[in-house]
Design brief:
Blueprint lengths: L8 H12 L3 H6 L1 H26 L34 E6 L10 E7 L2 E8 L4 H13 L1 H8 L2 H4 L3 E3 L17 H4 L4 E7 L1 H4 L4 H22 L5
Antiparallel strand pairs: 1-2, 2-3, 3-5, 4-5
Helix pairs in contact: 1-3, 3-9, 5-9
Length: 229
């Protein structure tokens, strides 16, 4: 059955134009276009994905509110950046754990940007205490970690990504089988996809399949940080 919440090529056309005209006057003149081609379709997609997400876990939220929900704001935080361009040139959607208050918690993610589209999952930039909990879980349950992220279903779709420490973290065996994973600062995985896939009427089901295959890693991380899956 085709997806009624259809992400169209108009989204990528708008974002491409925004990248070439990243200023407040242009955005103000094209805000209706942003609402029509980007914001409203993204919110409809989030709303439609809710029932499918609940099949994976009842503890993750598809929040279709215009502000404060699963859709990231288009506005950049430029306070601490040399780049003062006011708008993001991508659309980000995160289905985060109900216990999470921001992006630094277990979740599923969809990144939509001209020429760079991917599905992501895991925990990005966890604080030091959270990172230690994850490392301890990996160190103490290596077979469980192996099953979560090194099985054929997972590795056939996702690749572990993110920043890592240069040296083994203090208190962990440098000879541990998964020392490279224990050195991670981000516990995330990604899968590159095409704009053609995203704009297909079947993408809602395709995205569900990605999240389902990535769920073992998100489950492992949820247990590690003490939240239900």
């Amino acid at each position: 059955m085709a997806n009624e919440a259809h992400l169209s090529a108009g989204m990528f056309k708008f974002l491409k134009d925004l990248a070439a005209n990243n200023d407040r006057d242009w955005f103000k003149a094209n805000k209706a276009r942003y609402e029509k081609d980007v914001k409203n379709p993204a919110l409809a997609f989030i709303n439609a994905f809710g029932p499918k997400l609940a099949k994976i876990s009842p503890h993750f939220r598809a929040d279709a509110r215009a502000q404060g929900g699963s859709l990231f704001r288009i506005y950049r935080d430029t306070r601490f950046s040399k780049d003062k361009s006011p708008y993001k040139t991508h659309t980000g959607i995160q289905f985060r754990h109900e216990a999470g208050k921001d992006a630094h918690c277990p979740g599923f993610y969809l990144h939509l940007e001209p020429g760079r589209v991917f599905v992501g999952l895991g925990i990005w930039h966890p604080d030091s205490q959270t990172a230690r909990l994850i490392r301890e879980r990996i160190a103490d349950h290596p077979a469980e970690w192996k099953k979560a992220v090194y099985g054929k279903s997972f590795t056939g779709t996702f690749k572990l990504e993110g920043d890592s420490l240069k040296r083994p973290p203090r208190g962990f065996d440098p000879e541990h089988k998964y020392i490279d994973d224990l050195k991670r600062k981000d516990f995330i995985a990604g899968a590159k996809i095409s704009q053609k896939m995203v704009t297909s009427p079947e993408f809602l089901n395709e995205f569900y399949g990605f999240c389902k295959r990535g769920a073992p890693m998100v489950r492992f991380l949820s247990v590690a940080v003490g939240v239900p899956f």
